[in-house]
C-alpha cells in the first residue's frame, strides 16, 4: 500500500508541475493577445503598399481569365515535358538497336528490353499509386460532366500516376495515343487549381462553376496535345457533353489558345524551331488541290471508314468482354498482374523489330514520323524520286514488297494490336492509333488512284494531278471521326497540317463516315462506358414517336422513403438504418398529407441524432443531474446544520467537546492558489471545484464508473460528511479520507479523445453551455482519462434516458432543409426528363401531384427506362398492360381481404 501511494504521489507531483507550466504559457499567450488588441495594426505606408499589391496580383487568381490562362500554361508545360520524355525513350531505344551492337540477337534483345521494362514499370506504378489513371479518361469525364461523382478520379495522386504512366507507355512504342489521357490530366489540373483558388474566392466551391471549368479543361487537353485550339474546343463539346452552355465556349477557347500557343512557343525556344508552325506541316498545291470528280472517291473513303470504324468499336468491345468472361484466365491474370502487360508488350516489340516483321510496318519510325511521312505530298509509287523522297519510301517498301503490301500490313497490324494494347492496365488513348489507321487507308487509296490515273484527272480541259497526301489527310479525319463519332476531327486535321486546301473533301468524308458508323455502333467512348458500366445517361434513339407517350409515372419509384414534421427520433433512426444508400431524404408535412416541404441530407440527419443523444449531450445531462443532486445534498446539509445549531442552543455545552483540527492540505492548496496568475486565481476563487467542494467521496479501494440517483447515492445526506456530531475517531477518518482524495483527486469532467504527452493527466472539461460545470483553472489542453473519472450515467440510467429522448419529435426548426429540391409532375414525358437531367446535371428528382409527393426518379431508373425504350420493351402498350395487371391484382387482393373479413364476422357470430 505504501509503495503504491508513493508512486501515485510522484505522478501527481509531475502532473502538478506540468499544469503550472501550462498556466504560465497560457498567461503569456493571453498577454500577447491583449497587447495586440490594445495596440492594433499600425497604419503605415508599407502595409498600404503590400495590401494594394495583394489585391491586384494574387487576389485576382479568382478571376476567370487568370484561372484559364494558368490552366493553359500548365497543360502546355506538361505536354512539352512529356513529349521530351517520350522522345528520349524512343531515341534511347533506337540508339540501343543501331549503335550498341551489330549482332542480330543482341539487337533484338536491345530492341525488346526497353519497351517491356517501360510497360511493366507503368503498369506497376499506376496500380500502386492510382488505379483510376488506367485507360483513356474521356468516358469518365463524360460521366462526371453528367453529374455523377467518381471517387478519387480527380486527385493529385491520379495526376502523378497519369503523367508518369503515360510517358512510360508512349515511350515504349506501343500503338497507343495520348489525346484521351490529356483530357483527363487537364481536368485534374483544373480541379486542383479550383481547390487552391478556393482560399482566395469561395465562388469556386460552387458545383456548377466547377463543372464549367472542367468543360473548359477538356478543350485545353486536346488543344495542348495537338496544338489545335479551335478543333480542341469543338472536339471536347462533341465528345464530353450532350447539352453545351454557350457561356463556356469562350472559356474553353481562351484556355485552349493559351495552351496551344505556349506549347508551340516552347518548341521555338528550346528546340530551335524557326517559327510557330503546325504539328504535321504539309505543302499541298493550293491552286488546284483536287478535281471535283474526286469528291466521289472522297465520299467512298468516308463510307469505307464508317464501316471500318464501326468494326473497330465492335471488335474492341468483343475482345474486352471475352477477356472478362473467361473467368479462369481472368483469375490467373489477376494473380499475375505483370504477365499480361509483359506478354503483349513483348509480342508488339517483337513484331516491330526492324530486321524482322518490323520492316513491313515501318517499325523503326516513331508515331510522329509515321504520320508525317503518310501526309507527304509526293507519290511513293513513281519511279523518279529524290534522295529525301527515296529515304522516306524506303521505310514503306522492301526488296520483296511494294508500298501497297506494306500499307495493308501496317493497317492491319495497327488495327488489331492497338485494340489488344488498349486493354493493358496503363494510361493510354485510342485517338492516335485510329488516326494512323485512317491515314494509312487514305494513303493506300491515293497511291491506287495515282496508278489508275498516272497523269491526273481531266475535267473541263484541265489535268489535275493526284495528291496521295491529301487522300491520307481525308482518310485520317474520316476514320478517326467514325470511331469517335465527331465531325470536329476535320478542324483538328486542318490545324495539325496547317492547310485548309482539302476542307470540302474532309468535311464530306467525315459526315459520311459519321452517318454510317452511328447507324451501326456507338462511339468508342460510349462503348467503353457500356463495358465499364459507368452510371452514364444514354441518349434516346429517334426510333419513333412512342417515347413521347412514356411519362415519368411509368417508371418512377412509388415507394418513397420520407420523413415528416413531428417524426420521432426513433422512427427517423429506423428509416436511416433501413435505407443506407440514400444520400438525402424528402421531408413532407405529414404521412396523411405528404406535401413536399424540401429535402434533407443524410449527414444532417445523422448529425442531428448524434447531437440529441450523443456523448456530449449525455455528459451534459449527467453533469446537470449531478449538480441537482449536489444542490439537494447541500440543502439537506444546510437543514441538518440548522437543526444541529438549534439543538446546540437548547443543549448544555460539555467540557469534553472536541473541535476538529484545520485541514492542512486545504490550507496548502489555498496558499498555492495565491501563486496563480490573476485570471486563473479569479476562476479558482469563483468556480466550483468538484475536488474541493462537495464531490462524493470515493473509496480508495473501490472505483465506480458512474453514479445513479436511484436509492442510496454518494450525494445523499447519509454519506460520511463532517457534521457537528462527528466523534474524534470519525473526524480523523474523514480528514484522512479527505487527504487521500486531495492527493489522488480525479477529474470529473469529459476529456479529449487524443492524449497529449506533454500535459499528462491534467485536463479541462469539454462540455459547453452548462452552468455550474466545474472547470480546472486556466488549462487549455486536454487528455484522455479512464472512464471512471468522467461524470457519466449508469447503463440503466443511460438506457432509460435514451429511450425517453428518442421518443421526442425532431427539431425541424434547427434542421438544414433544402426548400426547393428538383421536382417533376407525373405527366412529364421521358424525353423532357432526359433533357432536364442532362442539362441541369442532377442525379434525382421528386415527382409530385398537386404538391404531394408521389414518387422519385433517379439516374438509375431513368437510365433503365431509356434502355428499355431504345430496345422496344417499354412502350405505351406495355405500360397500359402493366397498369391493367396491377389494377386486377389490387382488386383481387381487396376481394380476398373482404372474404376473410366476412369469414371472421360469421365465425364470431
From TrEMBL:
Q: Which domain of life is it from?
A: Eukaryota
The compartments listed are: Membrane
Entry's Pfam families?
Voltage_CLC
Every CBS domain range: 556-616
Which InterPro entries would you find in this protein's record? CBS_dom, CBS_dom_sf, Cl-channel_core, Cl_channel_volt-gated, ClC
Is the Hydrolase keyword given for this protein? no
SUPFAM superfamilies in alphabetical order: CBS-domain pair, Clc chloride channel
Provide the topology term for how it sits in the membrane: Multi-pass membrane protein
Q: Where is this region: Disordered?
A: 711-730, 755-775
**Keywords per UniProt:** CBS domain, Chloride, Coiled coil, Ion transport, Membrane, Repeat, Transmembrane, Transmembrane helix, Transport
> Where do the TM regions start and end?
65-82, 108-130, 213-237, 249-270, 295-317, 338-362, 403-422, 434-453, 473-494, 506-525
**Coiled-coil intervals in this record?**
619-650
Enumerate composition-biased segments (Low complexity).
713-730
Q: Does the keyword Chaperone apply?
A: no
PANTHER family, per database record: CHLORIDE CHANNEL PROTEIN 2 (PTHR45720)
Family according to the record: Belongs to the chloride channel (TC 2.A.49) family.
The protein's name is Chloride channel protein
Q: Which organism is it from?
A: Aedes albopictus
The record lists the lineage as: Eukaryota, Metazoa, Ecdysozoa, Arthropoda, Hexapoda
Amino acid at each position: 500500500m505504501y509503495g503504491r501511494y508513493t508512486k501515485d504521489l510522484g505522478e501527481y507531483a509531475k502532473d502538478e508541475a506540468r499544469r503550472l507550466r501550462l498556466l504560465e504559457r497560457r498567461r503569456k499567450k493571453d498577454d500577447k493577445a491583449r497587447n495586440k488588441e490594445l495596440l492594433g495594426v499600425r497604419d503605415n505606408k508599407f502595409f498600404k503598399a503590400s495590401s494594394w499589391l495583394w489585391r491586384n496580383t494574387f487576389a485576382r487568381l479568382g478571376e476567370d481569365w487568370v484561372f484559364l490562362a494558368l490552366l493553359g500554361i500548365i497543360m502546355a508545360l506538361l505536354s512539352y515535358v512529356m513529349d521530351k520524355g517520350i522522345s528520349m525513350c524512343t531515341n534511347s531505344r533506337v540508339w540501343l538497336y543501331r549503335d550498341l551492337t551489330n549482332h542480330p540477337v543482341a539487337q533484338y534483345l536491345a530492341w525488346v528490353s526497353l519497351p517491356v521494362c517501360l510497360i511493366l514499370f507503368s503498369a506497376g506504378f499506376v496500380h500502386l499509386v492510382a488505379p483510376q489513371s488506367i485507360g483513356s479518361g474521356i468516358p469518365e469525364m463524360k460521366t462526371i460532366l453528367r453529374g455523377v461523382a467518381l471517387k478519387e478520379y480527380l486527385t493529385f495522386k491520379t495526376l502523378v500516376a497519369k503523367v508518369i504512366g503515360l510517358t512510360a507507355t508512349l515511350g515504349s512504342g506501343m500503338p497507343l495515343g495520348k489525346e484521351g489521357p490529356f483530357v483527363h490530366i487537364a481536368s485534374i489540373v483544373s480541379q486542383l487549381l479550383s481547390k487552391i483558388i478556393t482560399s482566395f474566392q469561395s465562388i469556386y466551391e460552387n458545383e456548377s462553376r466547377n463543372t464549367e471549368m472542367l468543360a473548359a479543361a477538356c478543350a485545353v487537353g486536346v488543344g495542348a496535345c495537338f496544338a489545335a485550339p479551335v478543333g480542341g474546343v469543338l472536339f471536347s463539346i462533341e465528345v464530353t457533353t450532350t447539352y453545351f452552355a454557350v457561356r463556356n465556349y469562350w472559356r474553353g477557347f481562351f484556355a485552349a489558345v493559351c495552351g496551344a500557343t505556349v506549347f508551340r512557343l516552347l518548341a521555338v525556344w528550346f528546340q530551335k524551331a524557326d517559327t510557330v508552325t503546325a504539328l504535321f506541316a504539309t505543302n499541298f498545291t493550293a491552286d488546284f488541290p483536287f478535281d471535283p470528280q474526286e469528291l466521289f472517291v472522297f465520299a467512298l473513303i468516308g463510307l469505307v471508314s464508317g464501316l471500318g470504324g464501326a468494326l473497330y468499336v465492335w471488335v474492341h468491345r468483343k475482345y474486352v468482354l471475352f477477356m472478362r468472361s473467361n473467368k479462369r484466365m481472368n483469375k490467373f491474370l489477376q494473380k499475375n498482374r505483370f504477365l499480361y502487360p509483359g506478354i503483349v508488350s513483348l509480342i508488339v516489340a517483337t513484331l516491330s523489330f526492324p530486321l524482322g516483321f518490323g520492316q513491313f510496318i515501318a517499325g523503326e519510325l516513331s508515331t510522329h514520323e509515321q504520320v508525317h511521312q503518310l501526309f507527304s505530298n509526293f507519290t511513293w509509287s513513281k519511279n523518279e524520286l529524290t534522295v529525301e523522297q527515296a529515304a522516306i519510301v524506303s521505310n514503306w517498301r522492301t526488296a520483296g514488297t511494294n508500298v501497297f503490301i506494306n500499307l495493308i500490313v501496317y493497317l492491319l497490324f495497327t488495327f488489331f494490336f492497338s485494340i489488344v494494347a488498349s486493354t493493358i492496365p496503363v494510361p493510354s488513348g485510342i485517338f492516335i492509333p485510329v488516326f494512323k489507321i485512317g491515314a494509312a487507308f487514305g494513303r493506300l487509296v491515293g497511291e491506287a488512284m495515282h496508278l489508275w490515273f498516272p497523269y491526273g484527272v481531266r475535267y473541263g480541259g484541265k489535268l489535275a494531278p493526284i495528291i496521295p497526301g491529301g487522300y491520307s489527310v481525308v482518310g485520317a479525319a474520316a476514320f478517326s471521326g467514325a470511331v469517335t463519332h465527331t465531325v470536329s476531327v476535320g478542324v483538328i486535321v486542318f490545324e495539325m497540317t496547317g492547310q485548309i486546301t482539302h476542307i470540302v473533301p474532309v468535311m464530306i468524308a467525315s459526315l459520311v463516315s459519321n452517318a454510317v458508323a452511328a447507324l451501326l455502333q456507338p462511339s468508342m467512348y460510349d462503348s467503353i462506358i457500356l463495358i465499364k458500366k459507368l452510371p452514364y445517361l444514354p441518349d434516346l434513339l429517334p426510333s419513333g414517336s412512342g417515347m413521347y407517350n412514356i411519362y415519368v409515372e411509368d417508371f418512377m419509384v412509388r415507394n418513397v422513403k420520407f420523413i415528416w414534421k413531428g417524426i420521432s427520433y426513433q422512427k427517423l433512426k429506423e428509416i436511416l438504418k433501413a435505407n443506407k444508400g440514400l444520400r438525402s431524404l424528402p421531408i413532407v408535412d405529414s404521412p396523411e398529407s405528404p406535401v413536399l416541404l424540401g429535402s434533407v441530407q443524410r449527414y444532417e440527419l445523422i448529425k442531428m441524432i448524434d447531437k440529441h443523444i450523443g456523448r456530449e449531450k449525455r455528459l451534459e445531462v449527467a453533469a446537470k443531474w449531478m449538480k441537482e443532486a449536489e444542490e439537494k445534498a447541500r440543502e439537506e446539509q444546510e437543514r441538518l446544520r440548522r437543526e444541529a445549531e438549534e439543538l446546540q442552543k437548547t443543549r448544555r455545552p460539555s467540557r469534553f467537546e472536541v473541535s476538529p483540527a484545520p485541514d492542512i492540505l486545504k490550507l496548502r492548496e489555498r496558499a498555492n492558489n495565491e501563486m496563480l496568475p490573476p485570471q486563473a486565481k479569479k476562476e479558482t476563487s469563483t468556480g466550483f471545484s468538484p475536488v474541493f467542494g462537495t464531490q462524493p467521496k470515493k473509496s480508495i479501494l473501490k472505483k465506480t464508473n458512474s453514479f445513479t440517483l436511484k436509492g442510496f447515492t454518494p450525494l445523499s445526506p447519509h454519506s460520511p460528511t463532517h457534521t457537528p456530531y462527528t466523534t474524534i475517531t470519525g473526524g480523523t477518518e474523514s480528514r484522512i479520507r479527505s487527504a487521500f482524495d486531495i492527493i489522488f483527486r480525479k477529474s470529473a469532467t469529459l476529456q479529449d479523445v487524443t492524449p497529449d504527452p506533454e500535459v499528462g493527466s491534467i485536463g479541462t472539461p469539454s462540455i459547453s453551455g452548462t452552468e455550474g460545470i466545474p472547470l480546472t483553472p486556466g488549462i487549455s489542453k486536454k487528455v484522455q482519462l479512464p472512464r471512471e473519472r468522467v461524470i457519466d450515467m449508469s447503463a440503466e440510467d443511460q438506457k432509460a434516458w435514451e429511450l425517453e429522448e428518442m421518443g421526442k419529435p425532431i427539431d425541424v426548426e434547427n434542421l438544414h432543409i433544402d426548400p426547393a429540391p428538383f421536382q417533376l409532375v407525373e405527366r412529364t414525358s421521358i424525353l423532357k426528363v432526359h433533357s432536364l437531367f442532362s442539362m441541369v446535371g442532377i442525379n434525382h428528382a421528386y415527382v409530385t401531384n398537386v404538391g404531394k409527393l408521389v414518387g422519385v426518379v433517379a439516374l438509375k431508373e431513368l437510365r433503365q427506362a431509356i434502355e428499355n425504350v431504345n430496345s422496344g420493351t417499354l412502350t405505351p402498350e406495355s405500360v397500359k398492360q402493366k397498369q391493367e395487371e396491377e389494377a386486377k391484382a389490387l382488386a383481387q387482393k381487396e376481394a380476398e381481404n373482404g372474404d376473410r373479413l366476412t369469414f371472421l364476422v360469421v365465425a364470431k357470430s
